[in-house]
Design brief:
Strand content: 15-25%
CATH class of the largest domain: Alpha Beta
CATH architecture of the largest domain: 3-Layer(aba) Sandwich
Largest sheet: 7 strands, mixed
Number of strands: 14
Strand order of the largest sheet: 10-9-8-11-12-14-13
Shape: elongated
Oligomer: single chain
Helix content: 40-55%
Number of helices: 15
Number of domains: 3
Order of helices and strands: EEEEEEEHHHHHHHHHEHEHEHEHEHHEE
CATH topology of the largest domain: Rossmann fold
């Protein structure tokens, strides 16, 4: 016979109650729980206290130190108000007094009717909705019809292409779009996208940027909200744009972002995401990043060729080096090095230097073991800007270049840094400083959708900084192909 583990009892046998030990305390709401309602408590003539928490039968307040009070004291008229609505008015008794971090906290028990908490919570809901409704049309600004039409048309363009590309993705094998190997089909697809989707999106974005230029500063936030409502969800399907917005390293323009521009053009979880990624890489700002790298590479190549036959090492310094792409390409593409080269890469990001080290070491070990020496300096930008002697231990340089750092510096800071870097040049050495100009037609995307603000400078402003930094320098402006990211070149005579 099976013996039951327990016996089912009748209701008359059930135990567990505690007799007369019955206790119930109404739920207490902290002041923050009732936001956006603002609560205050009047505890007598001229005595207004900050509400800390409240329930149906009592309230806790911050009590002024200059008005002593004792447990058991009765207050004839206590009023509890929320945004002008009086939820309780009547007598109360001091039920507790305690000190907390030099603040006196007093608990009051209501002696009159219960406070109707349901009504207070309903008021909280209405107040919250009122605030939400006030934000419902933050995108609205008078005029600027051309901007609005262009953004709305871009949304329709992106919607249509998403449907088409989603359909195409469903008809293609996975490896064509997402595999590691290049295929004829993928090459043809990328060429087709560049000729159609990318050209249309980039052209439309530049028209939007041009239309935005006439908007007064007071309308910029509204226009940003308008753009977000229309096209932000499509843009964020690009891994490049998503990273640029969220800035996982805490600052814009990190080396991983640069890798998207240099080498990871066709990336994304879907074909549409890849297409959007490809479109951003085709904007003027992104192209300028590629072309400025080429500009620096050409200048270094000229300098190397000018030293043909010399055994005195050429010395280069890259400031805020990132992935060191120009140097990787320079050493990979060189057929010979007519002079030895010593390179110093400075960056505050260890990850950037580690990535550059892996790539440069492989090239140097394979081809230039006896001709190239590469050093890596990991220090903060703060130290760079404050310590004029940071590079003094490395001697003099034949070329110093900074491609993107000055985009984030104020004029006075940039002038001091330019002066300090110029002082590290050898006779005949060149300092190259890049800075994006205000005409950058990708500002709408960068500022409205990536929260990416640059300190733009005209060529005249860049030249002025150079002359102020080193009056004796020979100064000229060098242009990359887009005209968006010129360089000022300072030569030490």
């Amino acid at each position: 016979m099976t013996i039951p583990l327990h016996r089912v009892r009748n209701y008359e046998e059930l135990e567990g109650a505690q007799g007369r030990e019955v206790f119930f305390r109404p739920h207490r709401y902290r002041a923050s729980d009732l936001a956006p309602l603002l609560g205050e408590v009047s505890a007598g003539e001229g005595l207004l206290c900050q509400l800390l928490d409240v329930s149906q039968n009592g309230v806790a307040v911050e009590w002024p130190a200059e008005r002593p009070v004792a447990v058991g004291a009765r207050l004839l008229r206590v009023s509890v108000r929320f945004d002008g609505h009086e939820a309780y008015c009547g007598e109360a008794k001091v039920s507790s007094v305690r000190e907390a971090e030099s603040t006196t906290i007093v608990g009051l028990s209501f002696e009159g009717p219960l406070l109707p908490m349901d009504s207070v919570l309903e008021l909280r809901t209405i107040k919250a909705f009122t605030q939400e409704s006030a934000r419902a049309a933050v995108w609205r600004a008078p005029g600027l019809d051309r901007f609005k039409v262009q953004v709305a048309e871009l949304r329709l363009l992106l919607e249509d292409w998403k449907v088409m590309l989603d359909g195409l993705e469903s008809r293609l094998p996975w490896h064509v779009l997402h595999g590691d190997a290049e295929t004829p089909a993928r090459t043809a697809l990328i060429e087709q996208l560049r000729a159609t989707f990318v050209a249309k999106v980039v052209g439309q974005s530049e028209e939007i940027d041009a239309a935005l230029r006439c908007a007064p500063p007071s309308h910029q936030q509204a226009m940003k909200h308008f753009s977000h409502r229309q096209v932000h969800e499509f843009m964020m399907q690009s891994p490049c744009l998503h990273r640029m917005l969220h800035k996982p390293f805490g600052y814009p323009g990190d080396y991983e972002m640069m890798r998207f521009i240099y080498e990871r053009n066709f990336e994304g979880a879907t074909l549409f995401g890849k297409a959007v990624n490809l479109a951003f890489v085709g904007t003027k700002a992104a192209l300028a990043v590629k072309y400025r790298k080429d500009l620096v590479k050409r200048q270094l190549q000229k300098l190397i060729e000018s030293r043909r036959g010399s055994e005195r090492p050429l010395r280069f310094l890259s400031v805020a080096a990132g992935p060191g792409q120009e140097l990787v390409e320079l050493l990979s593409e060189a057929e010979d090095l007519p002079a030895p080269i010593e390179i110093v890469l400075f960056d505050q990001d260890k990850g950037a230097l580690a990535y550059a080290w892996r790539r440069l070491k492989q090239i140097v070990d394979l081809r230039w073991q006896k001709r190239v020496q590469v050093l890596f300096l990991n220090e903060s930008i703060k130290r760079l800007l404050r310590d004029a002697q940071l590079f003094s231990g490395f001697g003099e340089f034949d070329a110093i270049f900074s491609c993107g750092l000055f985009d984030y510096l104020q004029a006075s800071t940039g002038m001091v840094l330019a002066r300090n870097l110029f002082a590290r040049l050898a006779p005949g050495g060149k300092l190259l400083i890049g800075n994006m100009v205000p005409e950058n037609p990708t500002r709408w995307i960068m500022e409205h959708h990536l929260d990416w603000q640059l300190t733009y400078r005209s060529r005249a402003e860049m030249t002025e900084i150079a002359h102020r930094a080193a009056a004796a320098a020979r100064v000229q402006v060098l242009e990359e192909e887009t005209g968006v990211n010129p360089f000022v070149e300072m030569t030490r005579e």
